[in-house]
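User: I'll paste a sequence; please echo it back and then give the predicted structure.

Assistant: Echoing your sequence first, then the prediction.
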Amino acid sequence: MTDRGTVVWAPDPFKSDESNPRPWLIVSDERMPYPEAESIAVAFTTQSHHPGSLVVPSDAWIRGEPARRSYVLPWTVTTLKDDLHVVGTQGSITDEFTDEITAATISYLDDASAAKTK
């Protein structure tokens, strides 16, 4: 299982070239079915033009901070098979920031969360 809060490299669904992976933040933990084999992740990007993207502050990085500022797209969710899709690890971010990203992702799916923000 890839640990929650780890930033991994896996296929980029927005590119047809399979050799062009992108970073993904693992937001699932052992409660997921098949935690030893699969992880739920949200996309990282270096593009800041996406409304609703969340900047990854320097103090959120535990290790592996890239030279360029990163953003998380909490609505771009995928399930990664650890042994098939994950081709490397960028680093890891804090539990607090991972919780923030997870809450943002849930807000797109949960009517109760949407009602609270209106």
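The chain has one domain: 6-117. The CA atoms of residues 4 and 26 lie 5 Å apart.
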